[in-house]
Design goal:
Layout: H1 3-10, H2 14-18, H3 23-36, E1 40-44, H4 48-60, E2 65-66, E3 72-75, E4 89-93, E5 105-107, H5 108-119, E6 127-135, E7 144-150, H6 153-162, E8 164-165, H7 167-173, E9 180-185, E10 189-190, E11 193-194, E12 201-205, E13 210-214, H8 219-222, H9 227-240, E14 243-245, E15 248-253, E16 259-265, H10 272-276, E17 282-285, E18 289-294, E19 297-302, E20 306-310, H11 320-326, E21 332-335, E22 338-340, E23 343-345, E24 356-359, E25 362-365, E26 384-388, E27 405-414, E28 423-425, H12 429-437, E29 441-443, E30 455-457, H13 470-480, E31 488-493, H14 510-521, E32 528-530, E33 533-535, H15 538-549, H16 555-562, H17 566-581, H18 588-603
Parallel strand pairs: 1-6, 3-21, 4-5, 4-12, 7-9, 9-13, 16-27, 27-31
Antiparallel strand pairs: 2-3, 6-7, 6-8, 10-11, 12-13, 14-18, 15-16, 15-17, 18-19, 19-27, 20-26, 21-26, 22-23, 24-25, 28-31, 29-30, 32-33
């Protein structure tokens, strides 16, 4: 049966595919329609009518349930399908392909054979949804186009919220368009969730730029355009001379109505979302950014148009703008929270204690245990919300700018109890890449791994998603800014502690650090030069604390926060050196910059 025959047989609107006139695209779709064997195929155009069809199917299929607030719904993943499956997420590699240190991989032919056997007839009796989407703004030098095939109306609905529809682009560009491909099936369902999670697989074929995901519903494993696409984009950027980063994009507002745009990379639980959503500033994106050079400057865009955010600890006091969006009529998907009387509840929502309801384990009552006799929380710690950015009052209008925004500064934030000050600036781009970005660490907390204080290395908060060798990734950063006016690089640390073990800064202090960085990139404040970089001057911070927080900032607080912790910095340098010395091919520049920092610290009296 030819390509068109299988598509004619299965597609409700075959003409929507036929008019695309793209043989490669049609062959891709036809191959997996034939392999997965759905009962029918729905082709989503850019119309609101088609978006509405997918929303209705998500409710009709039971993958989502309506909530009390109009437009809101909830999705539950299986009890053992609540997070990214790192162990079974693998690159499919050819014998001549070198991905680098610590990257999980599998011989390509073996992986393709396995995934094809799992996909064989897996959609029998189901409907396949085909979505045409864009990473980044439409019709831009940043644009990467994508095609998602899935049998999950929840996944299709989520992708529709998070990414820009691009059917008309495929229709207009016809055979010239390149695309990333994604094939997903939730597999056999039991009680509405994936049954065969032990056969969960997420395979990334970098030869064909195709991602396969099977026997899972959790969005981090199934929405191909999220972190799975980041892996493909990193390889594409490596070949083409730009950067794909795990970064937010935000506007920090300065005097006279000025706005300076910053990017930020933070490992989990280090303050990434709370920084880009901070009161008084505007947000362009919370997760992934593409960076390109133009006319001697660096520009960036948010890859997405929505947020798939962790909902734990979102509350009216700490996150008023998100809280308002989550409690307003509109298109919001909650996942893996508890539902009580038609309303979602989650950990840290600062409301009255809940004793029963419906969650990912079914009917839940306090004290309910799983098969291992461990107590099931009322809402999963990794519970999420999915919304469009423009539902937030602080959404920056530049989100729609296809040219991107000029990057004035890049912020790297870790969780560090004893070494980094709350905010500081590198001497230059290379110094910042080495001593801040490539030296990024995060201490574990009781909420993550149980053992407190273990430092996890995570260069540029992108380690989990690298698809090229570490040495090449670092070299690409060195090279990227050689011929441009490079942004300033800053380090931040919201978790510095005093001798008594208490935090030295408050949750709201980051508003001051952001304002100082904005003034700094515009040349309006000086700084103290130290062996690790530039630190704020006390008088500038004293003024900013009064203006921003109406707070008197005492000099003794400044000295506790910004006193140079020489011994801890020296220990960190040795720790970072030991990590890199065991990784093949690391540029010698990295070791030279670290050694120069060690010498400055040793010589500081």
């Amino acid at each position: 049966m030819g390509d068109f025959d299988i598509l004619k047989e299965k597609c409700k609107h075959f003409e929507r595919l036929a008019c695309l006139q793209n043989e490669k695209l049609l062959a891709f779709i036809a191959e997996y329609v034939e392999l997965c064997n759905p009962e029918s195929v729905f082709v989503r155009t850019d119309s609101e009518e088609d978006a509405g069809y997918i929303r209705r199917k998500a409710i009709q299929s039971g993958e989502e349930l309506k909530l009390e607030i109009k437009g809101n719904s909830v999705h539950f993943d299986g009890i053992n399908d609540q997070a990214r499956d790192k162990e079974n997420t693998k690159f499919l590699v050819t014998p001549d392909m070198v991905l680098g240190h610590g990257i999980n991989s599998l011989p390509r032919e073996d992986g393709l054979g396995e995934i094809r056997s799992l996909l064989k007839d897996i959609m029998a009796g189901k409907e396949m949804f085909i979505l045409f989407l864009c990473l980044g703004p439409i019709d831009s030098e940043f644009s990467i186009y994508a095609v998602q095939l899935t049998d999950s109306s929840y996944v299709a609905h989520s992708e529709d919220i998070l990414f820009r529809p691009a059917y008309e682009i495929f229709k207009r560009q016809k055979e010239n368009i390149e695309f990333f491909g994604y094939v997903h099936s939730a597999g056999e369902l039991e009680g509405g969730v994936s049954k065969n999670v032990r056969k969960r697989r997420v395979y990334i074929d970098v030869v064909k730029n195709t991602v396969y995901s099977v026997n899972t519903q959790y969005a981090g494993n199934t929405m191909g355009l999220k972190k799975l696409a980041l892996r493909l984009a990193i390889r594409k950027a490596d070949k083409e001379g730009w950067l794909a980063e795990h970064m937010f994009v935000m506007g920090v507002h300065g005097p006279g109505g000025r706005k300076s745009c910053f990017l930020g990379a933070f490992p989990s639980f280090c303050g990434k979302t709370s920084t880009c959503m901070v009161k008084g500033e505007t947000v362009l994106g919370d997760d992934i950014a593409y960076l390109r050079k133009r006319e001697g400057r660096i520009y960036a865009v948010n890859v997405e148009r929505g947020i798939f955010g962790i909902i734990k600890d979102v509350n009216e006091i700490g996150d008023p703008l998100i809280w308002e969006a989550l409690n307003t009529e509109g298109e919001t998907i909650f996942s893996n929270v508890l539902i009580e009387g038609g309303e979602p509840r989650w950990q840290g929502d600062s409301r009255a204690e809940v004793s029963e309801g419906i969650n990912f384990s079914g009917k839940w009552v306090r004290g309910k245990t799983d098969d291992n006799w461990e107590e099931i929380p009322f809402s999963h710690p990794n519970a999420r919300y999915t919304i469009r950015l423009n539902s937030l009052k602080n959404c920056d209008p530049e989100l729609k700018n296809s040219q991107g925004v000029e990057v004035k500064g890049i912020i790297y934030g870790g969780r560090d109890s004893d070494t980094w000050p709350p905010v500081f600036e590198s001497f230059d781009w290379v110094h910042g890449v080495v001593t801040i970005a490539a030296s990024l660490e995060s201490e574990t907390t009781a909420a993550t791994l149980g053992k407190v204080g273990v430092r996890k290395f995570n260069l540029m908060a992108n380690l989990d998603f690298l698809s090229i060798p570490i040495w090449k990734y670092i070299k690409n950063h060195f090279d990227f800014a050689k011929d441009v006016s490079s942004p300033a690089i800053f380090g931040v640390n919201y978790f510095l502690k005093g001798e008594d073990g208490s935090y030295l800064t408050s949750i709201q202090d980051k508003r001051v650090w952001l304002k100082w960085m904005e003034l700094r990139v515009n040349g309006e404040v000086g700084a103290v030069r130290t062996p690790i970089g530039f630190l704020p001057e006390y008088e500038d911070l004293r003024k900013l604390f009064k203006e921003v927080l109406s707070k008197d900032y005492q000099e003794e607080d400044y000295l506790r926060c910004f006193g140079l912790r020489k011994r801890e910095n020296l220990v960190k340098i040795e720790r970072i050196k030991n990590i890199y010395k065991d990784i093949e091919g690391i540029p010698e520049t990295l070791f030279e910059v670290l050694e120069a920092q060690r010498e400055r610290l040793e010589g500081d009296s």
